[in-house]
Records
---
Amino acid sequence: MATLETLEAQLEDLKKEIAKAREETFNSAKEKDEQIAELKKELLNKVTTDNLIVNSNIGVGVREPETKGDVKLEIAGNILFNRNGDGGIFTGVGDQELNRYLQLSNSPELPTASGLKAGGVLVSDDYLFANPGKNDLVVKGNAEIHGEIRGKLWYSQEYEWRQGQPAVKMMRSGRTVAFLTYVRGKFEGNGEKVKVYESGGYWYLGGEAGDLGKDLKAKARCIGMP
C-alpha cells in the first residue's frame, strides 16, 4: 500500500513529465515556425534578387493553372505596373527586328478575337512621335478602314475671299482637305473664277474677276487634322 509521501513523489514526477512534454511541444512548434519563416525569406530573396526558373505552369490566385493552348501563366485578377515611367511588354529577345504582334484572344478553347480598351492610342514605329491624350488617336502612317466612319469630323473656321483681295491662306495641305462652301458674284464667262489651291504646303482661297466679273465672293473650309 502506497504511503502519502510516495503518492506526493509520484505526483511531482508526473508534473515534471507534463512540463517537459509541454516544453518539447513548444520548442518543436517554435522551431517549425522558424523554419517556415526562413523558407519564406529564402524564397523572397530568390524572387527579388536572383532568377526564378519554373519548369511548369504558374497560377496566381487560381486553384490550378491552365495548361491548354500553351498557357504558361494564369492570373485571376489585375496586373499592376508600378514604376516611375511607362510600363512595357517585350515580344522577344535579341538585336534583330522580329516583327511580332501582341494578340488578344478570347480563351484557349475558343481563341476568337478579343477587344482592347484604351484612353489614348499612338500607332507609330517611334513611341516619341506623339503623346495622345485621352480620347485621342494618332497615326503616323496610313489608316485603312473597311467600314463606315461615324461621328464628328474636325473642320476649320470658314474662310472668306472677296474680289480685289489677295488669296487667303488657310490650313496645312498635308493634314487637311479644302473645299468651297459658298460662291457668289457676276460670272460672265470671260475668265471669272474662284478656287481653292495648294501652294507651299498650305491651302489658299482666291479668285480672278476677269474683264466683266463683278462682286465675286467665295467661302471655304478645311477638314482633317489641325
---
Amino acid sequence: MSAAVVVDPDAFLDTERGRVWTPERNAEAWRLALAALRAALAADSVERLVVVCGLQGAGKSTWIARQRPRLGRVYFDAALPGRRHRAPILAIARACGVAAEAVWIRAPLAVALEGNRRRAADRQVPEESIRSVDRLFEPPSRAEGFAAVEAFVARHGRGYAYGDAPGMADCFTVPALYSARRFGVDVSPFPSLVAAADRAAEHPAIAAAHPLAQPDSDPE
C-alpha cells in the first residue's frame, strides 16, 4: 500500500446526481464500507487503523486530509457516536491483526452545525441528526479496544493545537515532542499531537526558540 486509504461510508452514497440518502441506501453504504475496510486491512503493509469520529460537520475529513502522508495507515471516517457503532470496526481490525486507535474530533455543537451549513447542499446532514449525535455521543476509550485515543479540539483552522495561529499549547508541545523523539519514545499513537507540533515547529518564532536553534544546544 503506497499511501493512506480512507474509508468513508458516506462516499458510497454518491451518485451522478450527487449524494443521495435513504435508509436502504445508507444500510448498503455501510455494508460496502465495512467490506472495503476488511479488504484494506488485509494488506500486509497496513500497520494501523485510525478511526476518526465526532459530530457531522466537526471537520473529520478535513483533519484526515491535513495529515502528513504515512505508509501503512488506514482511516475510517464516520460519526460513530457510541461504542456499539465502533464495535464492528474494532472487530474487523482485531480479525486482521491491525492495531486501532481513535481520534475524536471534539467540536462544540455550534461549530459542527456551522460546518454542516458550509457543505454542499447534497452533503448536508439534517440539523436534528447532528443534535442527536451530540446528545448521545460516548467518547471513545481504550477500554473498548483502542490501542490509543486522542481528542483533537476542532476549533483549529490550520493545523495548530487551538485556533488559526500557534498558542501556548504549541509552545509546550514542540519541545515536548522533540524530547520524546530524542529519547526514542514512540509517538506514533498520537498522530494529531504530532501533526500539530510539526506544523507549529515551522512557524518562524517557534523555530527560532527550538532547542536545536539555541547556541548551547547539544544535537546528541
---
Amino acid sequence: MGIPPLEENVVEITISAPTLICGMLPELSEESLEDATSLNQRQWIYGLMALGSGYTHVDDCGVTLQVIDNRTVRCISVCNDDYSLETLAMIKYAFESEDFTIQIDPYAILREVPSPNELKQRRKDSAEEKVSPNGSTIGVESSGMEIA
C-alpha cells in the first residue's frame, strides 16, 4: 500500500495571505505628528485606556479600537480609505509615543467604506434602536403620548 496515484480531476486551491494593514499606513507629515502628540490627543488616549479591558471605541474616522489591558489597545477594523488609514497612522504614533502598545496586524480587518445612502440608512436604523448599558441593542417602538 503506497500513495495512491493522483486523479485526473484535481482541484487547485489558492490561499491568499491576509491584508497587512501596517504596510498600508501612510507616512505622516510633521503637522500630523504634532497633532498626534498634542495634549488633547494624549488626554484622549489616557481617557480611553481608563475605560478598561473590553471597552470598544468606534471612531467616526473609520477606526475601531478595543482596550485589551491597561497598556494595550487593539485595532479591530479600519475603513479602506486614505482618511481612515491616516487616522490609524496618527493613532498608532500617538499610542507608541506614550509607551502604549497598539496591536494592528494580524487582528485588524479592512472594511469597505459604506456609501452615503448606506450611512443614511444606518443612522435611521440606529435612531430607532436603544442601546442598553451592557452594549446590547433593544428595539424601540415609536408610540404616541397624549399630554392633557
